[in-house]
Amino acid sequence: MKNTFFLPLLLGLGTSLQAQQYIGFQQQSVSVQQQSEKRFLDGVDYGRFKTHLTRLTAVPHVAGSAANEKVKDYLIQTMEAAGWSTEVYPYDVYMSKEPGHSAVEIVTPIRKPLNQKEFILEEDPYSDHPDLWKGWNAYSGSGDVTAEVVYANYGTKADFEKLKELGIDVKGKVVLARYGGNFRGYKAKFAEENGAAGLLIYTDPKDSGYAKGLVYPEGIHYNESAIQRGSLLTENFTGDPLTPFEPALPRDGKIKVPRLDPSETALHTIPVTPIPYGAAREIMELMQGIQAVPSSWQGGLPFPYRLEGGKNLKIRVMVDQKRDFVRVHNVIGTLKGSERPDEWIILGCHYDAWGHGATDPNSGTAMLLSLSETLGKLTDKPKRSILIGHWDAEEHGVIGSTEWVEQMRDELKANAVAYINLDAAVSGRNFGAASSPTLKQLIIDSSKEVQFPDSAKSVFEVWAGQKKEPSIGNLGGGSDHIAFYMHVGIPSVSGGTGGPTLYHTNYDNMHFYEKFVDPTFKMGGAVEQLIGLMTLRLANAEVIPYDVPRYAEDLNMHFEQAVKGVKEFHPEFNGFAKTRTALNYLKASSDNYSKNLDNKLDSGLESNILNDINAKLLELEKSFIDPKGMYFGSWYRSLYASTDPYSGYASWMLPGIMYEIENKNTDRLTEWDERYSAAINELNLKVSELNRILEHN
Question: What family is this protein classified in (predicted)?
Fold first, then answer.
């Protein structure tokens, strides 16, 4: 079914206002772009999303499996049929391909094996698929331990510090921690650093379970058998654990990449496995320790939580999980630009899943396949090249995309305009986005052009609600934008819709999707329209449509927060003086750039001038890429943003300073003032050069 949406700006607005909404377009090009966008919106076939999602999620397809190979083949077939050229990039990654063998049981005071797999449900025809595995954590250590148990809340750095404060020793014990608060790999890291013998992780019903509402299959929350799977990989870099900074190219290929020995890595050695809260309840109701947990540690199970199980309660945790080299494949589709083929707009989503993967990730994959078909049908081809990356092994540690970025580092530095990440991008009806500064306005403007399904409002109006503008977040960890943004310095966006999720469980399938996530299957088409408009504007604007003044605006806000953070432990701190001066200069030059550009777009610019401007715009974000990188990991080279190295998911803005704040360290504050002011001054010089070009041509 096709669904035609509207372009509000086509109706009753003057040429000047129209041009303002189309950043980077010369005035005479606006009407051409509007017509192209209308053809694109009219061409979106809403039925294709469901068709693709059904095919992609028919069977479980973990990275490295034969089923995932078939998904790869479907991606290639679909994109080539839509007129895209495709290339496969193989890598040999060191990882856990399968769960291996595991067991969790109560040994004393009773002997009882505990459940490690979701129930088969009569209502859910996918839940009995023979290729669904029990719960597992990739990159677990192998071992067989029997020990007393300690409850560690969410297993965060602060939680383990609190246990020490309370006199609880986890050495030689099995730690029981609930999901949430940080990346699961850090739960394992902190448990092992504190001497734990093993780790069990469960989703507490207070966080997703009966304490929240009806559980699956009646409702959207975890039932007592649901298990969150996931990787534990926590090196101080992202990607394949044996090839930091270098692509994990095939070992039988012509180029030989040096690899670390596994003994040289920080891979976990203790056995770790996830369990459902039904199994956690059976352990916790036998705990007889004398200390109750702090009130904030109490979860949703129907009894008071205790810190220790006592000497009479012994738990066995056994994991035998093999790690080896596994061949994984990225699929890159390219729609070559008609005028600027060497400037790339890159969109991406991974395709490997822990099970069927209906929401995570393949709602994003299905949308991208439909988008490739719609863009392929357009007679007016984009001026810049559009690339769509289908990444492999993301679930094991954001590996496929990282290896491609490391392989293509030089080409990306020279050619990449933007990266738009669409992991699980159609997972409900609530639109949201996180973005680098220069792309925020593009998202907002595009959202005004798409009607929200089953509504008379635009996506923008629903997204913003009662506010003047919607909130756009900062990019953190956990998905495929990391290497693009934080290692190479490419302006990036991560966006889409969210909603109900049975995250990383065997129930994330088409039955759950159709019943709870989007029964009408209209959101796929709406997200495709919005992402397609962003893509076409990036691809067709004469001048790359970055919102350059947003750098100074956002940086001022982040530095205000940073100063507050430092003053919490260093009250006499006077701020980052050199950086403050640099920001004042940047604000003036970037505001001037915006005015100069508007004037020149109204009168027109010659082709050679446009080439010069665009080449310099591509360099702006690279101002924040520092070869020295962060003290917590030199692979993370962006001074602007990184993942939180203590939680793995959260976004750290100004990560160099945030690391000092987290550790309450004042020794390097002057150094960071120097490094940040140098980066901002470099950015200011580039913006000033753009002003010089615009003012003299």
Answer: Belongs to the peptidase M28 family. M28B subfamily.
Interhelix angle 66-81/47-56, nearest 10 degrees = 150
Q: For 385-405, how does the pLDDT look when each residue is reduced to its tens digit (9 = 90+)?
A: 999 999 999 999 999 999 999
Q: Please give the Cα distance from 185 to 415 (Å, whole number).
A: 34
What would the two tokens of residue 456 be?
A: 């008379």
Closest alpha carbon to 94 in 274, 251, 273: 251
- For residue 319, give the nearest of 641, 481, 569, 96 by alpha carbon: 96
Mean of all residue pLDDT scores within the chain: 95
The pair of three-digit structure tokens given for residue 378, joined into one six-digit string: 């357009």
Length of the chain: 697
Domain 27-96+325-442+499-540 architecture: 3-Layer(aba) Sandwich (3.40)
3-state DSSP call for residue 403? helix
CA 214 to chain centre: 28
Burial grade of 248 (CB within 10 A; 0-12, 13-18, 19 or more): buried
Residue 231 token pair: 């990787």
Q: What is the CATH number of domain 548-696?
A: 1.20.930.40
Q: How far apart are CA 174 and CA 171, in angstroms?
A: 9
43, 36, 30, 38: which is closest to 8 by C-alpha?
38
Q: Is omega for the bond preceding 361 within 30 degrees of 0, making it cis?
A: yes
Q: What is the arithmetic mean of pLDDT over 254-281?
A: 97
pLDDT-derived band at 656, boundaries 50, 70, 90:
very high
Q: Where are the domains of the chain?
A: 27-96+325-442+499-540, 101-232+268-321, 548-696
Residue 304, classed as helix, strand or coil, is: coil
For residue 497, pLDDT over 90 is answered with yes
Q: Measure the N-to-C terminal CA separation of the chain; round to a whole number of Å.
A: 49
CA atoms within 13 Å, Cβ hemisphere of 189: 20
Of residues 16 and 360, more confidently modeled:
360
Matching residue, tokens 């030989």? 256
Q: What is the pLDDT of residue 616?
A: 98
d(CA 419, CA 447): 18
* Residue 167: pLDDT over 50: yes
- DSSP code string of 247-286: ----TTSSS------GGGS----SBEEEE-HHHHHHHHTT
Q: Could you give the 3-state DSSP secondary structure of residue 71? A: helix
Closest to 283 (Cα-Cα) out of 251, 252, 306: 306
- Find all residues with CB under 8 Å of 690, minimum gap 6, and list them: 548, 593, 596, 613, 616, 617
Sign of CA dihedral 149, 154, 158, 162: negative
- CATH architecture of structural domain 101-232+268-321: 3-Layer(bba) Sandwich (3.50)
Please name the amino acid found at residue 102: S
The backbone region for 636, taken as left when phi is positive above 0, alpha when psi lies in -120 to 50, beta otherwise, is beta
| Helix/strand/coil for 32 | helix
Confidence category of residue 20, pLDDT binned at 50, 70, 90: low
The string over 579-616, giving b where at least 16 C-beta atoms fall within 10 Å of a residue's C-beta and e elsewhere, is beebbebbbebbebbeebbeebbeeebeeebbebbbee
217 backbone φψ class: left, alpha, beta (φ>0; ψ -120 to 50):
alpha
